[in-house]
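Sample intake sheet
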Amino acid sequence: MSAMYRDHPVPERGFALLAAIVLLVLLSTIGVFMVTLSTVQHTTASQDFQGSRAYQAARSGVEWSMYQALQNRQCADQSDLILPAVTLANFTVHLRCLSHSYEEGDQQITVYQITAIAQSGVAGSSSYVERQLSSTLSLCLLDGVLCAD
Protein backbone atom coordinates (compact mmCIF):
# COMPACT_ATOMS: atom_id res chain seq x y z
CA MET A 1 0.00 0.00 0.00
CA SER A 2 1.37 3.37 -0.92
CA ALA A 3 1.71 6.37 1.35
CA MET A 4 -0.71 8.34 -0.84
CA TYR A 5 -3.58 5.94 -0.36
CA ARG A 6 -5.24 5.75 3.04
CA ASP A 7 -7.95 3.49 4.30
CA HIS A 8 -9.55 6.14 6.45
CA PRO A 9 -10.41 9.59 5.13
CA VAL A 10 -8.82 12.51 7.01
CA PRO A 11 -11.47 14.48 8.92
CA GLU A 12 -11.88 18.04 7.70
CA ARG A 13 -10.45 20.63 10.01
CA GLY A 14 -11.64 24.22 10.62
CA PHE A 15 -15.35 23.55 11.11
CA ALA A 16 -15.15 24.38 14.83
CA LEU A 17 -13.54 27.74 14.03
CA LEU A 18 -16.30 28.63 11.56
CA ALA A 19 -19.01 27.64 14.06
CA ALA A 20 -17.33 29.71 16.78
CA ILE A 21 -17.23 32.80 14.53
CA VAL A 22 -20.91 32.42 13.56
CA LEU A 23 -21.88 31.96 17.21
CA LEU A 24 -19.82 35.01 18.22
CA VAL A 25 -21.48 37.19 15.55
CA LEU A 26 -24.92 35.95 16.56
CA LEU A 27 -24.33 36.66 20.27
CA SER A 28 -22.89 40.11 19.45
CA THR A 29 -25.99 40.96 17.39
CA ILE A 30 -28.27 39.90 20.23
CA GLY A 31 -26.20 41.99 22.68
CA VAL A 32 -26.43 45.12 20.48
CA PHE A 33 -30.18 44.60 20.14
CA MET A 34 -30.59 44.30 23.92
CA VAL A 35 -28.55 47.48 24.56
CA THR A 36 -30.61 49.39 21.97
CA LEU A 37 -33.87 48.13 23.45
CA SER A 38 -32.74 49.09 26.95
CA THR A 39 -31.77 52.60 25.79
CA VAL A 40 -35.14 53.12 24.10
CA GLN A 41 -36.97 51.89 27.19
CA HIS A 42 -34.97 54.23 29.44
CA THR A 43 -35.64 57.22 27.15
CA THR A 44 -39.36 56.45 26.96
CA ALA A 45 -39.66 56.14 30.75
CA SER A 46 -37.79 59.42 31.21
CA GLN A 47 -40.08 61.21 28.74
CA ASP A 48 -43.15 59.78 30.47
CA PHE A 49 -41.90 61.08 33.82
CA GLN A 50 -41.19 64.52 32.33
CA GLY A 51 -44.67 64.54 30.78
CA SER A 52 -46.22 63.91 34.19
CA ARG A 53 -44.20 66.76 35.67
CA ALA A 54 -45.28 69.06 32.82
CA TYR A 55 -48.92 68.13 33.48
CA GLN A 56 -48.52 69.00 37.17
CA ALA A 57 -46.88 72.33 36.28
CA ALA A 58 -49.75 73.20 33.91
CA ARG A 59 -52.27 72.17 36.54
CA SER A 60 -50.55 74.45 39.06
CA GLY A 61 -50.92 77.30 36.58
CA VAL A 62 -54.64 76.65 36.10
CA GLU A 63 -55.22 76.44 39.86
CA TRP A 64 -53.27 79.65 40.51
CA SER A 65 -55.32 81.48 37.84
CA MET A 66 -58.56 80.15 39.34
CA TYR A 67 -57.50 81.38 42.76
CA GLN A 68 -56.76 84.83 41.33
CA ALA A 69 -60.16 84.92 39.65
CA LEU A 70 -62.05 83.83 42.79
CA GLN A 71 -60.15 85.89 45.37
CA ASN A 72 -59.17 89.02 43.47
CA ARG A 73 -61.78 89.00 40.71
CA GLN A 74 -59.04 89.59 38.18
CA CYS A 75 -57.74 87.73 35.19
CA ALA A 76 -54.39 88.54 33.59
CA ASP A 77 -54.67 88.18 29.82
CA GLN A 78 -51.16 86.78 29.44
CA SER A 79 -48.59 86.11 32.12
CA ASP A 80 -45.89 83.69 33.15
CA LEU A 81 -45.89 81.77 36.40
CA ILE A 82 -42.66 81.00 38.21
CA LEU A 83 -43.06 77.81 40.19
CA PRO A 84 -41.32 77.72 43.57
CA ALA A 85 -41.32 73.94 43.81
CA VAL A 86 -37.85 72.47 43.33
CA THR A 87 -39.22 69.56 41.32
CA LEU A 88 -40.96 71.88 38.83
CA ALA A 89 -38.38 74.70 38.79
CA ASN A 90 -37.19 73.99 35.23
CA PHE A 91 -40.69 74.41 33.78
CA THR A 92 -42.02 77.62 32.31
CA VAL A 93 -45.77 78.07 32.65
CA HIS A 94 -47.49 80.49 30.27
CA LEU A 95 -50.95 81.55 31.38
CA ARG A 96 -53.76 83.04 29.36
CA CYS A 97 -57.04 84.10 30.89
CA LEU A 98 -60.03 85.58 29.11
CA SER A 99 -63.07 86.84 30.98
CA HIS A 100 -66.54 87.71 29.78
CA SER A 101 -69.15 89.32 32.02
CA TYR A 102 -72.88 89.57 31.54
CA GLU A 103 -75.93 90.20 33.66
CA GLU A 104 -78.78 87.85 34.26
CA GLY A 105 -81.49 89.57 36.29
CA ASP A 106 -79.84 90.94 39.45
CA GLN A 107 -76.87 88.61 39.09
CA GLN A 108 -73.58 89.46 37.45
CA ILE A 109 -72.03 86.39 35.84
CA THR A 110 -68.33 86.33 34.89
CA VAL A 111 -66.96 83.42 32.90
CA TYR A 112 -63.18 82.89 32.95
CA GLN A 113 -61.50 80.80 30.26
CA ILE A 114 -58.05 79.80 31.61
CA THR A 115 -55.30 78.12 29.61
CA ALA A 116 -51.91 77.06 31.00
CA ILE A 117 -49.02 75.78 28.89
CA ALA A 118 -46.11 74.22 30.76
CA GLN A 119 -42.91 73.49 28.88
CA SER A 120 -39.34 72.48 29.53
CA GLY A 121 -36.35 72.02 27.25
CA VAL A 122 -35.64 73.26 23.75
CA ALA A 123 -38.34 72.72 21.13
CA GLY A 124 -37.28 70.03 18.67
CA SER A 125 -34.91 68.27 21.04
CA SER A 126 -35.56 64.89 22.62
CA SER A 127 -35.72 66.48 26.07
CA TYR A 128 -38.52 68.91 25.14
CA VAL A 129 -41.87 68.37 26.83
CA GLU A 130 -45.05 70.45 26.82
CA ARG A 131 -48.53 70.05 28.28
CA GLN A 132 -51.53 72.34 27.89
CA LEU A 133 -54.56 72.45 30.15
CA SER A 134 -57.70 74.56 29.83
CA SER A 135 -60.44 75.23 32.32
CA THR A 136 -63.60 77.30 32.48
CA LEU A 137 -64.73 78.97 35.68
CA SER A 138 -68.05 80.77 36.20
CA LEU A 139 -68.44 83.30 39.00
CA CYS A 140 -71.88 84.57 40.01
CA LEU A 141 -72.23 87.73 42.10
CA LEU A 142 -75.40 89.18 43.57
CA ASP A 143 -74.83 92.68 44.98
CA GLY A 144 -71.08 91.96 45.23
CA VAL A 145 -71.57 88.69 47.16
CA LEU A 146 -71.25 85.19 45.76
CA CYS A 147 -74.58 83.77 44.65
CA ALA A 148 -76.11 80.89 46.60
CA ASP A 149 -76.39 77.57 44.76
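Comment: Residues 15-72 form the longest helix (58 residues). Residues 86 and 116 are 19 Å apart (CA to CA).
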